[in-house]
Amino acid sequence: MSEKNVELQISYDTINTQQNTLDLTMIQRTLIRHTRALSSSIRSAPRTAISRPQFIPANRLPARPLASARWYATEPEAKKDSEPAAAEGKTEAKTEDPVKKELEVKEREIIDLKDKYVRSVAEFRNLQERTKRDMQAAKDFAIQKFAKDLVDSVDNLDRALTTVPHEKLNASEKSEHLQDLVSLYEGLKMTEGILMSTLKKHGLERFDPSVEGEKFNPNEHEATFMTPMESKEDNTVFLTQQKGFKLNGRVLRAAKVGVVKNS
User: Fold this and answer.
1) Spans of biased composition, class Basic and acidic residues (predicted)?
2) What distance in Å separates the CA atoms of residue 5 and residue 17, rounded to the nearest whole number?
3) Domain range summary for the chain, segments of one domain joined by +
4) pTM of the entire structure?
5) Do 262 and 230 contact (CB within 8 A), yes or no?
């Protein structure tokens, strides 16, 4: 083969190779262009939501048996909507303000302490009043034992005065012995008056319920006997056998008396 023919053959092979490469490039570009066009057409296509209506109008119902119709209620959806709200309420209830809670605790403590303070003040005042009364009672009745022993001597003095007859005291003519009796009586009477005045200053008093015809009082009188008397009312004291004594208003010794009982 000549050298010229070899050169022509090489040129022809080169041209074929270039032609094949060009064809592949064109094919690739064509495929890429078609692919892009297809992608753009898919993206631009409208998306239709496939949804099933909850309520179908009567005029649009398909012509099929009613048994195959499907109906959908909205109550479960409402329940689902209410569940998040209830959950939020529970979350708010659980997440209370700690400052508010601590304030409520402090308020309860203040109320408790105030109640205890008021009770303590009341108890202290009651203790003061009770102590004051006890001290006054101890002061008023300090001579109670002495007064009980003294009333017997006062009774003996009173009996001595009652033994003197009134006729002798009121006699128009008085002998020497009778005059001495009257003087003794008057002296004892004065002594009794001074003694009773002194005892009264210390709170000890004597009382005679038959003088004013008092009603029988079981707290101050002791009935020794009862008798009917038409001129007096029932339960009236008509006789005093032993006079009573009071110490600062408290009965030291009850008076022994006779009471009227008509019925």
Assistant:
1) 76-100
2) 19
3) 141-260
4) 0.52
5) yes
What are 162's two structure tokens? 């009652």
Tokens representing residue 116 in the block: 């205890």
Give yes or no for a contact between 218 and 212, defined as CB atoms under 8 angstroms apart: no
Q: With CA atoms as reference, report the closest residue to 221 among 200, 244, 193, 198.
A: 244
pLDDT tens digits, residue range 121-136? 999 999 999 999 999 8
- Where does 141-260 sit in CATH, by number? 2.30.22.10
∠ CA 41-45-50, nearest 5°, is 150
Structure token digits, residue 106: 């402090």
- Label each residue of the chain as H, E or C: CCHHHHHHHHHHHHHHHHHHHHHHHHHHHHHHHHHHHHHHHHHHCCCCCCCCCCCCCHHHCCCCCHHHCCCCCCHHHHHHHHHHHHHHHHHHHHCCCHHHHHHHHHHHHHHHHHHHHHHHHHHHHHHHHHHHHHHHHHHHCCCHHHHHHHHHHHHHHHHHHHCCCHHHHCCCCCCHHHHHHHHHHHHHHHHHHHHHHHHHHCCEEEECCCCCCCECCCCCEEEEEEECCCCCCCCEEEEEEECEEEECCEEEECEEEEEECCC
